[in-house]
Amino acid sequence: MITRRGLMLVLSSPSGAGKTSIARSLLTRDKEINMSVSATTRPRRPGEAEGKDYYFVDEEKFKIDINKGLFLEYARVFDHYYGTPLGLVQKLLSSGCDVLFDIDWQGTQQIKAKARDDLVSIFVLPPSTAELEKRLITRAQDSAEVVAGRMARAADEMSHYPEYDYIIVNHDLDQSIDAVHTILKAERLRRSRQASLTEFMKQLREGCS
Amino acid sequence: MITRRGLMLVLSSPSGAGKTSIARSLLTRDKEINMSVSATTRPRRPGEAEGKDYYFVDEEKFKIDINKGLFLEYARVFDHYYGTPLGLVQKLLSSGCDVLFDIDWQGTQQIKAKARDDLVSIFVLPPSTAELEKRLITRAQDSAEVVAGRMARAADEMSHYPEYDYIIVNHDLDQSIDAVHTILKAERLRRSRQASLTEFMKQLREGCS
Lengths: 209, 209
Prior knowledge:
Two copies of one chain form a homodimer. By secondary structure, chain A is α/β, with parallel strands linked by helices.
């Protein structure tokens, strides 16, 4: 049996396109992929577990780790840092496990720059502007201005679709989950991910002579 | 709805690894992929239909077409020419149909040189040398020499596995058919094959402002 190297599956989309529901279902369906756990400097909230929801670290340690190049990607959002520790991901990939990321185009670009060969990126699109707007009106009292702001941010995120390997238009949630799962299963069969293939081929070919 | 450009799915393997059975099942399961029909200069045999089994052409016409660059790939096998007419394949791809090829590494290399972006290549391997040998002994009276010759040709074909995108080890026929079908469905979702994506994105983003 050929052992394989894991891959990093990135799902990006404008907020409201259904990415989070797809990610949650994929984790339930497929036991060989794990959600990436980020480190953050923001305080722990009630109910959050260390190492499950986040790794909680202080700002000084986070900045030292940035300088040491220990993050696969990171970002500052308002007053806090969020980032993916490189070591944990590399350990998972080497042991043949896949890692799922629910991140935006900026995080995806950082991962691409560091580990192109292990990255598979999918961009999830809403089926239409009308459908996106419907999903972005989260409460009846949302003002037109608030919704317009969300739509503008969605348009900005969507302008980065050419940077992704695969495109899924989320007409139907179940079909979109199937599509992401299909991409994951196919990408596992890439020659470049078959870790012990050279050894297997050597045995196979030597046996022929 | 986004229209898509078709792709060329190439299956290669040493003889005896199960490629032909996989190809036949895939065509039954998936109606959007068609078998490529080759042109040949060899005489038509009883029961063969023009345009279904082969396009039967004379050698003079075949050679003129080679010089005009009208073949996607071609080869001379003993006294006859075999080749894939480029025009037919291009027509299928443009109309969003996929084309399946059951060819060796040399044909695959020729297609790669002409149309890399539309090509998805899969190499099918036998699970072990013992299993390959079992499948290559086609008749009880096959001599050790005949079998050894087949094994040597298999080893030679297998040396080209690094030129392929995906590797499938054929432990179980049904699982291998599933794997090829999964690769086909995933590759259809590649951004580069979504023919009308630019237009779709333009509408989506304009609608946001």
